């Protein structure tokens, strides 16, 4: 059984929607796509660094469309680990586990990894929205489209823009 | 720089001393070594499963002798990650990070991994007190002596019984 490493923020959890909502409360208007595309999250939102330290930011993130249905199917075919950068933001630790338990109840505690760096993660396939995590991975890599990575491409990583695309890559072959 | 994976409970944190103290409060006497040697932790202490869910169990664990001094030296020579099984016991997540911050302030958040299984961890050297973690590791493995593993040996893992022994293996060559 192949080991599939799945990122959480920006792949399962729609943290962009949280950034945009928090930013809207601060500035009174919703940021346009053109203001955030191609820009790192923490730069696109002036107060982004305080948002990710706000209780509830991770716990209340919306689920990315299609991820529940497809991940449940993948979980029967692959050895799945959800690997999420969390140690930097302490309040996120418990929030992330509770969020997974609520939205992905088929994922067990043995399948969750909370880390800082992902450089020591070993697997066959990785889905992540950050180049830094994919670049150090030895297996097949999928870049999940998010505004911050939209303008950049790498021949080393295959871009996927939805869970439907992941399904067609990993479940129909 | 070689990557060194270091376990927390039973290698840095003296969880046995915590088990013994909690058990002493329950039974009015200190368990003898003969009562715990060669027996899994959760069986050696009747109420062990409730101890590890008690707030403060991990936060107040004593530091294993020599680990601070030797790990600080190792941290200059190796790429170190502290990898600890924690997801099963939620109250332990924050306690473990705070404990590391207090006793091992030279370890940064990027170097901490809280997980369930360790099967997806990649590195050159691993120090752990549990066979299940060492058995799936691809690199060189050191079994750190603890009462539960004292009666068992494996030709695949080199036994070390103190941080002084780790120092002589990993720092003087």
Would you spell out the secondary-structure blueprint of this structure?
The structure is a homodimer of 173-residue chains.
Chain A: E1 3-6, H1 15-27, H2 33-36, H3 41-44, H4 48-51, H5 67-77, E2 79-85, H6 90-103, E3 112-115, E4 125-128, H7 131-135, E5 140-144, E6 158-160, H8 163-170
Parallel strand pairs in A: 1-2, 1-4, 2-3, 4-5, 5-6
Protein described:
The structure is a homodimer of 173-residue chains. With 173 residues, the first copy, chain A, is of the alpha/beta class. Chain A has two domains: 3-14 and 62-170, HAD superfamily/HAD-like (Rossmann fold, 3-Layer(aba) Sandwich); 15-51, no CATH class. In chain A, 36% of the residues lie in helices and 16% in strands. Chain A has a six-stranded parallel β-sheet with strand order 3-2-1-4-5-6. Chain A is globular. The first copy, chain A, starts with a strand and ends with a helix. The model of chain A has no long low-confidence stretch (mean pLDDT 95).
Looking at this protein, list some descriptive labels.
homodimer, six-stranded parallel beta sheet, 8 helices, alpha/beta, 2 domains
For CATH, the homologous superfamily of the largest domain in chain A is named as HAD superfamily/HAD-like
**Looking across the biggest beta sheet of chain A, what order are the strands in?**
3-2-1-4-5-6
Order of helices and strands of chain A: EHHHHHEHEEHEEH
For this structure, the CATH topology of the largest domain in chain A is Rossmann fold
Query: Which second-level CATH architecture of the largest domain in chain A applies?
Result: 3-Layer(aba) Sandwich
Distance between the termini of chain A: 14 Å
CATH class of the largest domain in chain A: Alpha Beta
Give the number of DSSP strands of chain A: 6
Sequence stretches where pLDDT stays below 50 over 5 or more residues of chain A? none
Rough outline of chain A: globular
Strand content of chain A: 15-25%
Structural class of chain A comes to: alpha/beta
Largest binding interface between chains: A-B, 26 and 26 residues
Mean pLDDT across residues of chain A: 95
- Multimeric state: homodimer
Share of helix of chain A, binned? 25-40%
Largest sheet of chain A: 6 strands, parallel
Total helix count of chain A?
8
**Total domain units of chain A:** 2
Gyration radius of chain A, rounded? 16 Å
